[in-house]
Amino acid sequence: MKITVIGAGYVGLVSSACFAELGHEVITVDNDMQTVEQLIGGRTPIHEELLPELLDRHRGRSLTFSSDIAAAFRFCDVAFICVGTPPSPNGDADLSYVDNVARTLAKSLDRHKLIVEKSTVPVGTCEAVRRTMMLNNARAEYFSIASNPEFLREGTAVRDFLFPDRILIGVPDERSREMLIEIYRPILDGSYYERRDAVGGRAPHSPKLIVSDVKSAELIKHASNAFLALKISFINAVSTICEGVGADVRQVAEGIGADSRIGPQFLNPGIGYGGSCFPKDVLAFRSVAQSVGYDFKLLTEVMAINEEQKRRFVGKVREALWTLRGKKVAVLGLAFKGGTDDVRDSPAIDIIYRLKAEGVEICAFDPAAMPRAEALLPSGFITFAPDLYAACDGADAVLVLTEWPEFAAADLSRIRALLRLPILLDGKNLFAPEAVHAAGLAYFCMGAGGHADKPIRNVSLALKADSLRPALPVVRTHDDVRSVA
Ligand code: NAD
Ligand code: UGA
Q: What topology is assigned to 221-305 in CATH?
């Protein structure tokens, strides 16, 4: 199949590489010349596992890049719209990028095409695209519009695309259904997983195909993201209760998630969900509800709990360090989650602003997101370290704000030796408390019964560590942390 992908961002680029991997001929267009030049020049503009390998495999053969949307549209049988749908100031999704594409496509329509909306959009958008195209003189018999929402996660995007739980197609007619099934056939019939060169090697996998009407598909995407965000806010609310009553949210989450009707995923508490998707999609879904006269208060609460988590984490830093002005902290993690360089709506960036407002000096490290964070933050706002240990050197505490596997595997004893005060604040519950205590660090995490986690255990472990490092301050209780500070 001849496919044009419009938008070479996180979704468009991954989709393009994966469509080529499935055997299609793909042109990817973007109106950002720098992105197109990077792609033509052999570079990968975003940090995403397996993407550079897939691009290298297909670039210049079945996958080409262009900034000429009209020419790319004339080439294809099917065009996927993958442009951004950021939030407007009033919470609605800003559909101006989609509208812009629709008007351009209308002018370049020379024979029948299937136009597929892959960006996350409010229900009714495909219908609005159809109207816009008609108003711009597109002939109705020359195009159909389908919805094919994308469920990939940043950081695992290629695997999510090629090994999905489900493929959702919202189709207006039989011809569109057949064309979309043809595109995904190697995944649906399992032939992709038989290939010797398949990503991850041969591995059986059988995703579910869901065929719906167009509006239901659009709604499924918004409702799925809202539900996942709700799950995170739910466990974050439970973690607050755990802290109050002295329970351990990790054990509680394990117990809740063991119920197959609930499931263990998206029950990790922390500093709240971020990224370019959940925050804007929950907001946009609430706007959709408002547009039909329903006040979706549950989503308002989901957002409020999410905001509260960042405030609560800064409160923990204040508790641990007593006063913040003039303190120096190491921040590990700037991306909104591990495995990506994306800092859009990152809770880490929000927390950095809150700490800076209280006079804290920050030295940060992130394995992939430092260039984007540097571009986002005011010049000289924070300093950047070449590695996680350099960030910790001389700091009053280390704050873990992104769930990078590199951080979970860090040498805690080395971190302890570099810190001025032995304090680790874990906003992602990445570490086992025992391991942190064994390294002689006081551990503050989310939802573990009081601020200084298990102080009695801390005393004995810190004392043990003390005999190995007599020159370093040892934290026995929460009060000790304060007095050392
Ligand atoms: P992005 O900002 O990374 O990429 C969008 C790209 O579209 C940019 O490169 C931009 O230059 C380009 N673009 C904008 N207008 C254009 C035009 N007229 N012609 C050609 N190119 C144009 O966005 P993203 O993260 O890839 O998200 C795209 C959509 O997919 C959003 O609706 C998002 O909600 C949805 N989505 C994102 C993810 C994710 O993990 N990022 C997952 C599923 C769905
Ligand atoms: C999310 C969805 O998971 C994808 O299915 C969807 O396609 C995508 O949004 C989208 O529509 O754009 P993504 O935002 O890339 O994907 O990443 P997630 O893994 O969902 O994480 C989102 C945020 O929630 C991150 O900040 C992460 O740290 C946080 N999170 C996630 C938690 O705090 N706890 C958890 O248990 C899981």
A: N-(1-d-carboxylethyl)-l-norvaline Dehydrogenase; domain 2 (1.10.1040)
